[in-house]
């Protein structure tokens, strides 16, 4: 154990108790409640748990994203009458892995695990680069030491190499083993294994760069490091001061620190750190102007937020809202229908998806809306309820959300434009149909009657279109399943609205879209049109500049086609190219669409709002994504990426002797002229330390909108390549020079220590 963990454990009763182990109930449903023995392992990184069967299951502390206390999951809410909240807690895992709901034998035991887990996670987050490396080495040792005797024989080393994606001939492996076996015992222990690992992971690619800038070939003096930062990393500002900070932060040798120098180990630590990564750390926090109108921002948005799976038979769950909001999503969808006992319900209408209560959704949104971002959340309401249940919806919204719910304009006066995310901090906005307009509520034009009717002209188009798709798909589904059943989809009719619910719609009134010409003359800034992806695509192809102009004045929502019953996603980039703000994706579905969404919103504090380029917000600019070279500030760039090497790529094939044949594909997503992809060669049988030195070049005409996606795949000449890892970021957030790209899994979670080493140059096109 490192000194950090030893200090962490000493005197901590919670961790001591976790090391001894505890019996707790694992809960899966109201009827599935089984006792399991949970124990923290001596590495303070792994939790093992066991049932009556002899086998143990385990998970890493690093896999846990959050701990929720009390009845804060659907499963624990369902057994709230049986087990008190102070004995219950939920472990939430990264990515799309299911939660672990637990009930301790006493409130004290529950608190012991909650506090202990929080401390372990905090320690893990504060780990230095050197400690992380030690941790990985320790993990590999444990995996390879099959007989748990604390040492490793040559057979165990050979098995380890296969686990690590290394295809090495026996002679070479034995040579490294013998060199590391300083005690000549025929086994590797502690420091000997560390030496073996270091020889195995020797970074010739980084050594080459180090020696190019090191005057004596042994260390980088302060002057050498300054040259490297200036000439290769293209850093500006106070380079002398930054050099001193890097040496202080990453250099492990105290002797080198006294000489104001950096050894190769320190250089490797720096290049593997956040500062040495491809993503510019200065763009991680909120750095954009947040005081512009809402329509000037791209807004992270979720479609059918309540669904955890597909659109026909999937489970509806409040967990969908928790997960979306925890990822920085700022616009969630609530599909409301009349329920039993006068309580509105949320589910995907006309399908077999399960149902949840509207008030539970509102409660969840209230609890989680501002945990990761203080900027406004938009509740996109798809309202199918009777007037009576709409009144219940309004009561729940008011009672549960209180002051968080925006009930009137910010200053109580008739507004002339949309407020900004800054103005609306901590507020939840309703996007729904509304009786009349915003101005009428200030000049006494709205009738005092408790209901109003939405005319065909005003009726929100998305409900009709989505229902028609859904109903036709369901009709086919039911016809195939129950051939004798005759299914008649419900007919469309005008809808009556409750005034109470309508009054809570302030800056986001859902309206039917007629044409851009009609909108330019008649539409109000607070009106929001919604389009299916196919309708949006038609408009952007036929009238791109008009679409951009429309989106400079008001909000637009785009959502996936009703035919995507598998909850797949479209590519959001083409919608962003025309300035559509609310591009709603199925957050529960991993893949290219969500990679791009995560990539775009990973900047600006992951707050869910990203400022559009100025040529898209100034109405008179007339930007056309089809012909970007025609806009005033047109400045294309050339992006040159040298893909140098990969490090410890994960295995994708579970067969023990299968080794990855990796290739790297770089994709540019942007305006149509910029859409491009190029690949490196594939390297046969080496997922551990493949080396390419392949150079890829792209001309990018609208760099302000370009996203760059790095994808690693396992080459297969007979079938589709297997996905290994990816990383996506805006071109504007890229750091130049020698950089590491820390790869993410299919569902967007990190997979350390897997990375790519690249060299980046961005130059203006002559």
UniProtKB/TrEMBL annotation:
Its EC number is 3.1.4.11. It is an enzyme of class 3 (hydrolase). Residues 624-745 form the C2 domain. Residues 501-616 form the PI-PLC Y-box domain. InterPro entries: C2_dom (IPR000008), C2_domain_sf (IPR035892), EF-hand-dom_pair (IPR011992), EF_Hand_1_Ca_BS (IPR018247), EF_hand_dom (IPR002048), PH-like_dom_sf (IPR011993), PH_domain (IPR001849), PI-PLC_fam (IPR001192). It is found in: Cytoplasm; Endoplasmic reticulum; Membrane; Nucleus. One of its GO terms (cellular component) is endoplasmic reticulum. Residues 132-167, 168-203 form the EF-hand domain. GO terms for molecular function: calcium ion binding; phosphatidylinositol-4,5-bisphosphate phospholipase C activity. CDD domains: C2_PLC_like, PH_PLC_delta. It is a peripheral membrane protein. It catalyses: a 1,2-diacyl-sn-glycero-3-phospho-(1D-myo-inositol) + H2O = 1D-myo-inositol 1-phosphate + a 1,2-diacyl-sn-glycerol + H(+); a 1,2-diacyl-sn-glycero-3-phospho-(1D-myo-inositol-4,5-bisphosphate) + H2O = 1D-myo-inositol 1,4,5-trisphosphate + a 1,2-diacyl-sn-glycerol + H(+). PANTHER family: 1-PHOSPHATIDYLINOSITOL 4,5-BISPHOSPHATE PHOSPHODIESTERASE DELTA-4, PHOSPHOINOSITIDE-SPECIFIC PHOSPHOLIPASE C FAMILY PROTEIN. This is Phosphoinositide phospholipase C. The gene is plcd4a.
